[in-house]
């Protein structure tokens, strides 16, 4: 059966998350239903990462095995037709070797977390940012973020229901950027690692917001990390500010597309 890599963009608000659920809408379920319209029968796809309810993606990657030898462009067009009106789009498609795997072949995941700094309601950006109605000190947030870089036991910054075998991960980048977004000033966290724990990025964002607001000193982030205790974490940021920006592979299955 030919295997295809799908680059997927979606707005997470209507979904219970990526993973298929029997009684709730999911991104996986929407794509599998679209595949069934093309090739009748059951379909099971796999993704590079399972995003939570309300989390978005610009660069999620999934794999699908099909009976027919589809032209990748025609497959993406057909899927996009059947995905309407769900806020899901296949932005690239490529034929990949049988041994290639969307999750296990990946060598990095990149997330962006957007914090909008304004008091007026975020009308056009609603559901795509975490709106904070007070100023944040980006320099202090950078100082706090520096404590998290490298290989650590991230027990403090993972959900109590996380199913990962180990809390040890290597955080390759956690950049705090100031940007002028379409609705006002933003703080954007650019986070990169081979893999992440459940709620890890949102835990980083909520904790660093406390640093930026002056409620925490930057060095308290290091003490929270060393505690290896979920109770030492700051608040967990809401999901709508988080977006899976991209997934890295030794060889990009989509080339320059």
TrEMBL record:
Q: Indicate yes or no for the key word tRNA processing.
A: yes
Whether Isomerase counts among this entry's keywords is yes
Q: Which CDD domains match?
A: PseudoU_synth_EcTruA (cd02570)
- Which SUPFAM superfamilies did the record assign? Pseudouridine synthase
Q: Which UniProt keywords apply?
A: Isomerase, tRNA processing
One Pfam short name: PseudoU_synth_1
The protein's name is: tRNA pseudouridine synthase A
Organism in which the protein naturally occurs:
Wenxinia saemankumensis
Q: Which lineage is the organism of this entry classified under, starting from the top rank?
A: Bacteria, Pseudomonadati, Pseudomonadota, Alphaproteobacteria, Rhodobacterales
């Amino acid at each position: 059966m030919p295997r295809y890599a799908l680059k997927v963009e979606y707005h997470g608000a209507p979904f219970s998350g990526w993973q298929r659920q029997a009684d709730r809408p999911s991104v996986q379920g929407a794509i599998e239903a679209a595949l069934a319209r093309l090739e009748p029968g059951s379909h099971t796809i796999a993704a590079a990462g399972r995003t939570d309810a309300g989390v978005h993606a610009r660069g999620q990657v999934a794999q699908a095995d099909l009976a027919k030898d589809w032209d990748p462009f025609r497959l993406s067009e057909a899927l996009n037709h059947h995905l309407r009106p769900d806020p899901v789009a296949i932005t690239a498609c490529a034929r990949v070797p049988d041994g290639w795997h969307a999750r296990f072949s990946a060598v990095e995941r990149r997330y962006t977390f957007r914090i909008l700094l304004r008091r007026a309601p975020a009308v056009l950006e609603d559901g795509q940012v975490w709106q904070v109605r007070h100023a944040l000190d980006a320099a202090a947030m950078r100082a706090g973020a520096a404590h998290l870089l490298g290989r650590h036991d991230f027990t403090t910054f993972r959900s109590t229901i996380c199913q990962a075998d180990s809390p040890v991960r290597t955080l390759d980048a956690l950049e705090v950027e100031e940007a002028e977004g379409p609705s006002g000033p933003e703080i954007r966290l650019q986070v990169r690692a081979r893999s992440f724990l459940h709620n890890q990025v949102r835990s980083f964002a909520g904790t660093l917001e406390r640093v930026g607001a002056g409620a925490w000193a930057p060095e308290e982030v290091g003490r929270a990390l060393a505690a290896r205790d979920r109770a030492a974490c700051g608040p967990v940021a809401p999901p709508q500010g988080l977006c899976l920006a991209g997934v890295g592979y030794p060889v990009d299955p989509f080339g320059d597309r």
